[in-house]
Amino acid sequence: MQHVKVPQDRIGVLIGEGGSTLREIESRAEVRLDVDSENGSVAIDSVGDPVLGMVAPDVVRAVGRGFAPEDAMALLDDDMMMFELIEIDRHTRNKNDMRRQKGRLIGENGRTRELMEELTGADVVIYGSTLGIIGQPEEVEVVRRAVDMILDGAPHGAVYSYLERKHNDLTRGFNVKQND
């Protein structure tokens, strides 16, 4: 059995209307979820395929870190899909620095975060002090590198150029999903 902490304001999203999201995760991941809405603790007990059961904590963690349940459940659809969490606060000195870095990662009107998604095919969510990524390993790697560049103070233009270059590498030979 594994335990995952979910922020209070994301418990409702994890459970879903009338428990529908919770039931769907349980059925697709072949697990039993026991949600303690008081402290946000979720106990995950594998009851079927152990491989799916190993992915379930990432699905719960992803929903807890701001992903829509449908996006989080993509982790169950493809063995290669992965979830990564970057702790933004590890790269900041104080609250003001955190606010500034989050602003840089989001970009004007959300443009930087959007470009990371469009040019890599990965899903990117900034929630609290974390940035979450769901995608194929090479997509996650490109987003991670772009995030590191931004957090290290690189100009957005340089990051966008890097993303464009990697987009061309990623799409050469196979199709990356496009958000129209």
Describe this structure in words.
Keywords: RNA-binding. This is RNA-processing protein. There is one protein chain. This protein is an alpha+beta fold. The chain folds into 2 domains: 2-76, K Homology domain, type 1 (Ribosomal Protein S8, Chain: A, domain 1), CATH 3.30.1370; 82-178, Ribosomal Protein S8, Chain: A, domain 1 (2-Layer Sandwich), CATH 3.30.1370. Helices cover 51% and strands 18% of the residues. The chain is built from 8 helices and 6 strands. The chain has helices at residues 11-15, 20-29, 50-64, 69-77, 95-106, 111-120, 137-151, 156-171, and strands at residues 2-5, 31-36, 41-46, 82-87, 123-127, 130-135. Strands 1-3-2 form a 3-stranded antiparallel beta sheet. A 3-stranded antiparallel beta sheet has the order 4-6-5, with helices on both faces. Strand 2 and strand 3 (41-46) form a beta hairpin. Helix 2 (20-29) runs antiparallel to helix 3, helix 6 (111-120) packs parallel to helix 8 (156-171) and helix 7 (137-151) packs antiparallel against helix 8 (156-171). The protein is globular and about 50 Å long. The N and C termini lie far apart (40 Å). The mean pLDDT is 93.
For the structure shown, list the relevant keywords.
alpha+beta; Ribosomal Protein S8, Chain: A, domain 1; three-stranded antiparallel sheet; 51% helix
CATH fold-level assignment of the largest domain = Ribosomal Protein S8, Chain: A, domain 1
Low-confidence stretches: none
Percent strand equals 15-25%
Largest sheet: 3 strands, antiparallel
CATH class bucket of the largest domain:
Alpha Beta
Mean pLDDT: 93
| CATH homologous superfamily label of the largest domain | K Homology domain, type 1
Rg of Cα set: 17 Å
Portion of residues within helices: 40-55%
* End-to-end separation: 40 Å
Coarse morphology: globular
Counted up, domains total 2
Number of helices: 8
Going across the biggest sheet, name each strand in turn.
1-3-2
Number of E-type strands: 6
The chain-level structural class is alpha+beta
Pfam families: KH_1, KH_PNO1_2nd
Organism: Haloferax mucosum ATCC BAA-1512
InterPro entries: KH_dom, KH_dom_type_1, KH_dom_type_1_sf, KH_domain_protein_archaea, KH_PNO1_2nd
Domain K Homology: 1-81, 82-152
